[in-house]
Amino acid sequence: MNISVIKYSGEDTGRKVTLSKEVFGIEPNDHAIYLDVKQFLANQRQGTHKSKERAEIAGSTKKIKKQKGTGTARAGSIKSPVFRGGGRVFGPQPRNYSFKLNKKLKELARKSALTYKAKDKSISVVEDFSFETPKTKEYVKMLTALSLDNKKTLLVLPENNKSVALSGRNVQNTKVVKADMLTTYDVLNADNLILSEGSIEKIDNLLKK
Questions:
Q1: Do residues 136 and 170 touch, judged by C-beta distance below 8 A?
Q2: Which phi-psi region, left, alpha or beta, contains residue 205 (left: φ > 0; alpha: ψ -120 to 50)?
Q3: Domain 2-45+97-207: which CATH class?
Q4: CATH 3.40.1370.10 domain extents, the chain
Q5: Model pTM?
Q6: Its family (predicted)?
Q7: Which residue, 162, 198, 202, is CA-closest to 180?
Q8: pLDDT per position as a tens digit, 77-107
Q9: Is pLDDT larger for residue 49 or for residue 3?
Q10: Cβ-count burial of 162 within 10 angstroms (0-12 exposed, 13-18 middle, 19+ buried)?
Q11: 17-37 average pLDDT score
Q12: 48, 56, 136, 153, 166 from 139: Cα distances, Å
């Protein structure tokens, strides 16, 4: 698949790049995508939720009423779950939600997500660029020149670029990542993928195996 390379100012460079079939043109595997996104979201959970059970409640252990003759059910502790302020039955406890996925399955999921973007023609390739200083206005100007200012975008860079990353940090509905930090969730969560020209080779080296 050939895509025209454009400058971040929106001008056409007259060059084209080829997106490899091994990464951007495979048969997508929806279940691999599902598992990878599920793992990503599970890893975001802190798992610090906690409620107190009856053994952890501070309260008197005095028997609150006599055993028989009250006409109601017997009760031995104010900390019982049936009373207001008592402990909770089977409440949430701290836990780790993360789970393991094989490396090859995660690679398949990323290639499948990239393939879907290529099929939808939602990939733009931009000539490698940088800003002299971090400026949000410059980043917004770039999105406007690419006609992507009203869409959710993901910009993929080959290496760390502090000025570009800081410029896009405060822009709503946009994210800047390095090629080796690209995730299936980020790809699918964006309406359009903006690939810096140098990042294509990085992505190929990571996924073309």
A1: yes
A2: alpha
A3: alpha beta
A4: 2-45+97-207
A5: 0.83
A6: Belongs to the universal ribosomal protein uL4 family.
A7: 202
A8: 999 999 999 999 999 999 999 999 999 999 9
A9: 49
A10: exposed
A11: 94
A12: 37, 53, 5, 12, 9
Is the Cα torsion angle 40, 41, 46, 49 positive or negative in sign?
negative
**Assigned token pair, 7:** 């400058």
DSSP string, the chain: -EEEEE-TTS-EEEEEEE--HHHHSS---HHHHHHHHHHHHHHH---------GGG-----S--S-SSSSSS-----TTSTTSTT-PPTT------------HHHHHHHHHHHHHHHHHTT-EEEE-----SS--HHHHHHHHHHTT-TTS-EEEEESS--HHHHHHHHTSTTEEEEEGGG--HHHHHH-SEEEEEHHHHHHHHHHH--
CA distance 94 to 98: 13
CA distance 146 to 39: 33
Rounded-to-integer distance, Cα 199 and Cα 118, Å: 15
How many angstroms separate the CA atoms of 41 and 128, rounded? Answer: 31
pLDDT for the residue 209: 66
